[in-house]
Amino acid sequence: CFLDVTAVCILEAFQNQQSMLLADKVLKLLGKEKAKEKYKNREPLMPSPQFIKSYFSSFTDDIISQPLLKGEKSDEDKDKEGEASEVKENSGYLRAKQYMEEENYDKIISESTKEIEAKGKYMAEALLLRATFYLLIGNANAAKPDLDQVISMEDANVKLRANALIKRGSMYMQQQQPVMSTQDFNMAADIDPQNADVYHHRGQLKILLDQIEEAVEDFDECIRLRPDSALAQAQKCFALYRQAYTGNNPLPVQVAMKGFEDVIKKFPKCAEGYALYAQALTDQQQFGKADEMYDKCIDLEPDNATTYVHKGLLQLQWKQDLDKGLELISKAIEIDNKCDFAYETMGTIEVQRGNLDKAIEMFNKAINLAKSEMEMAHLYSLCDAAYAQTEVAKKYGLKPPTL
Q1: pLDDT tens readout for residues 252-266
Q2: Pair 162, 147: CB distance under 8 Å
Q3: pTM of this prediction?
Q4: What does the alpha-carbon distance between residue 187 and residue 166 come to, in Å, rounded to a whole number?
């Protein structure tokens, strides 16, 4: 029984490796089981505008996220209700693009569907746009047939097909299918070898697979094709830094840190550059400078809740300032009440403080916002662990150590 395993862990002050491994194994199985059932029946949820903008900013060769051309728009202004202005053609896809520019994201799937059902001239674009928003709301099952169809349309623009392969490859990675993911990225590189996005996103995949040298090669190719790609340059630096840091090589670490300085100097408007540099500085115990980097991120992207969470965690590590840390994480939730990372972090801190009921509440909020079944399984594990500790406290009067 999991409660008994938890009781043993508490009695052993979480010091016995075997008991901890058993508890972890049981938690993972429980989490997987619950997530499978819950994710199937979850309500699809549109993420925040900041999340959507960040997602699209990771693509530079993406036709569907480009603004409407002058000839595609009507001269009329949008009406006062914020509805999309009439586009020159009666096209669901062009209306969806107009809604996208207005950040009226909830209407994009339905307008794209109109274009698809009418078999309009923008059918391939509409399929890709609809699939992208299905992915954003966490509905991979609905996205896949649309992506499959675009990929098989040999007469479609190669940029659309490559983009669909990148997105399907990323989806496979999220579903822990690295072989299929790699196949899609390789196919994208074959059909559109000059597409910088292929190498950028494949580089990120290689990092997840711990293939750092190959990741760096991909980032280099992305930079060769797009020298102005700030994201690829920042992520290349971070890949080199992780390789040096885990290999315990002081000289390459210094070189990577210098690389970050060069990136933020060259691209002072790239928030991701400062954020990745801040993570490396935190590893190096340079907390004050890391804090400054997070402040730069906040100046550039005041609506990015994730930065406030990272800055909050830094306060805990740097100054053991629990109040300041929680204040910043609360601010993240205030800015974006759909930020699952903020709820998860808040829950983890409340567990450490012994506020288990509050922790369970936070984990449940994060579960409802999870963007993949895998992420949801992990959150259920955290929630079940907190719940087991409350039950053990009631049953045996045992309480785990707190902060």
Answers
A1: 999 999 999 999 999
A2: no
A3: 0.89
A4: 9
